[in-house]
Amino acid sequence: MVVSCLVWYTLFLKRWLTQTPRFSLTGSVSSYEDSSSISVSSLSGLSSSLLEGGTIPSGQCHLDRLSASQRHFILHSVMEFLDIDSKLGCAVVCKEWRSLSRQPSLWRHIILDKRRISSKAITVVSSANLMILIDKSINNSFNLPRELDQFLRTVSSWCLELQTLKLSRIKPQTKRRPGETKEVYQKRTRGILDDGIESLLAASQNNLMIVKITSCQQLLTKKSYLKIAQYCPCLNILKLDDCAIRTEVIRSLAKGCKQLTSLQIVPDAKRDGNKNMTNSNLHFIGSTWYQLKLSLSIGGKNFSKSGLLSVVENCQLLQILELSRAQKVNEDAAKKMCRVGLKELHTFLFTNTIVTPQAILHLYVSCPQLKSIRVYLHLSDVYPGRDNANQYREKFDDAVSELQRLKEHPGLGALLQVRADID
């Protein structure tokens, strides 16, 4: 990882020097922040060419022409292309690299996906800060449940300009300790990332524009979601997918994050059965986030046509609407939705939600901006439970075939996508 970073730096440095043999900096420059007189556009062009596999022209490379500020500027531009793992690796190269790798402008995006808390990690103590270096050869693992939380708290001091936070499929260690019961194990791992997330949110505050959290199980509790409402008033995009969302969280988010243009709240069906997405909450969402424009994704079978109509009527600018694991949408529901809204809608997604052919036809005719209708169904959506699933297979296939035949309708074939699974 470090060797790769060094190669990047060497190639980029040589490319820069051979194309721009002389630099002219105005005034006294002593730090990276003061080196703005160097052409950013030319640097961007060089980096793009290098990323695309361009060759380095022949010529003599004179390293002594670079001042410290010029070297810092080039190195910073290289580090902008690196992921979190590589940036952490840069910190162990030398003092100069460590200082540059912690520039807030390099930590505008925190993206952690498929991290597993298990029994291996590399920890390095540097300048009184604990840094957890992620070794990809050991499945992106952390040593102890608290180490990932410590990692988040450590990098929060560098995330003053954080704009994007994405956490996806972060899991606790796969095995319980010897003699440990399931209840004790869940209690031990519950909410272990809450403090780290709070540190990140508190550090970034008004800069944070995008938060996406997906399938983090019990590692995050409602405390983290309430902190989003507290620290992120300028948030534009919020995704909480397969998370344990309670009514208290929904209402706090509605009061604290009033500038949202995209909202995805699909509760964890396995844990709470989507019971918390009620008509009352949908009325609250519609009346508070009426400015939603990009997309809205809601899920659960505990809200009815009344709650759905409230959202559609209030969010008149909505372009993308997704119903996930929701109640069946028939022609009557489609007519009422089209009567009160959906004039700007261009994409309607039915994820694990039954929709009748008549409803799809009405949406196609009544939504002037509609460009895509996507339906994803599973056998369990139509016939819940696994008992005697085979005897319902034929009925399920017939229902899917009815939807597929809609593609023969003039104009609708280009818009409609249907996917069905039985496994």
TrEMBL record:
SUPFAM superfamilies: F-box domain (SSF81383), RNI-like (SSF52047). Keywords: Signal. The keyword Transferase does not apply. Residues 1-18 form the signal peptide. It holds the Pfam family F-box-like. The keyword Flavoprotein does not apply. Residues 74-111 form the F-box domain. InterPro entries: F-box-like_dom_sf, F-box_dom, GenomicStab_NeuMorph_Reg, LRR_dom_sf. This is F-box domain-containing protein. It comes from Stichopus japonicus (Sea cucumber). It comes from the Eukaryota. Gene3D superfamilies: 1.20.1280.50, Ribonuclease Inhibitor.
